[in-house]
Design brief:
Number of helices: 13
Order of helices and strands: HHHEEEHHHHHHHHHH
Shape: elongated
Radius of gyration: 23 Å
Distance between the termini: 26 Å
Largest sheet: 3 strands, antiparallel
Length: 298
């Protein structure tokens, strides 16, 4: 269980669409929502003939192949699926696995879809919707190593293009000048997804990769410390949080986490950091710090 430890959660997507949106796109969206693969098989070639192999056409083919080869099924997994699921316990009473509904994409669909999206990514490396579409599919089908490999490629690209990304219809998915902030928030969403599914080793590998590209990332240094804390490596977690606090002393979440982790290690330090939070502008954090100080004074 993830306790009172605080994790940063982000990412809202508002796309600033480029002028000249394709007349085919709205039709395509309706057919995808209806899962009308027969109509899509007619529309996409017509779209491609009229406008060429645009980024949106690559995305359309990708979704088409996945839709044609997907089925709602049942899976047995250690990850709790969305919706209703049966928790299976081992002999000690601990949850060993979950039995629940899951959308399965057959291997034929995976191969066709990934081949098409890879071609699109190679041609339009700054169309982040293509890369994230691929990552979403890989994560959904439990192919974590491949998802991490694609995220690594995206991180490499972010250094080259200085976070000047495009999205559907070649729109810009952030306000001008906010590319890095928006990109970071999207990466944070992926980390939070992995963390909440208790995929600690995958989340840690992802956090390390982001830190390798952005060594002073307060978010991902904090993410790494969060995993260390949850896996019992409290000293290592504290060392990282102290480093983050030096980078950004104004970050109340980091200050809170240092105070929280010190509760059973160094009571005086814990009180010191909780007292700093009494000046926080975040009323929730201020209230938590007040309660913690009351408990520590007993």
């Amino acid at each position: 269980m993830k306790n009172r430890f605080i994790l940063i959660m982000l990412c809202l997507l508002v796309v600033y669409v480029a002028y000249g949106e394709s007349k085919y796109y709205e039709k395509y969206e309706k057919l995808v929502d209806a899962k009308d693969t027969a109509a899509l098989a007619k529309l996409i070639p017509e779209w491609e003939k009229a406008e060429g192999s645009t980024g949106d056409v690559y995305a359309a083919w990708f979704n088409y192949y996945v839709l044609c080869h997907m089925v709602d099924g049942v899976s047995l997994t250690k990850i709790q699926p969305e919706g209703e699921a049966l928790a299976l316990q081992d002999s000690t009473g601990n949850i060993a696995a979950y039995l629940g509904g899951h959308t399965i994409v057959f291997e034929t669909g995976m191969k066709l879809g990934l081949a098409k999206i890879n071609e699109g990514i190679a041609k339009y490396p700054d169309r982040l919707d293509l890369a994230f579409g691929k990552v979403h599919l890989l994560l959904d089908q439990y192919r974590y190593d491949e998802a991490l490999k694609e995220l690594h490629r995206v991180l490499d690209r972010s250094v080259v293009n200085k976070n000047q990304w495009k999205w559907t219809n070649d729109g810009i998915p952030y306000k001008p000048g906010d590319g890095q902030v928006w990109f970071r928030s999207c990466l944070q969403d992926y980390f939070t997804q992995l963390y909440n599914q208790n995929l600690d080793s995958v989340a840690l590998a992802f956090a390390d990769d982001v830190i390798q590209h952005y060594p002073k990332s307060v978010y991902f240094l904090s993410n790494k410390a969060a995993i260390y804390s949850q896996t019992g490596k409290v000293k290592e977690a504290l060392d990282i949080f102290v480093k983050v606090h030096e980078l950004d002393p104004s970050d109340d979440i980091v200050t809170y986490n240092i105070a929280f982790l010190n509760e059973k290690i160094d009571k005086k330090k814990s009180i010191k950091y909780y007292r700093q939070l009494l000046k926080s502008k975040d009323e929730g954090i201020k209230a938590d710090a007040t309660r913690a100080l009351e408990e520590l004074s007993r």
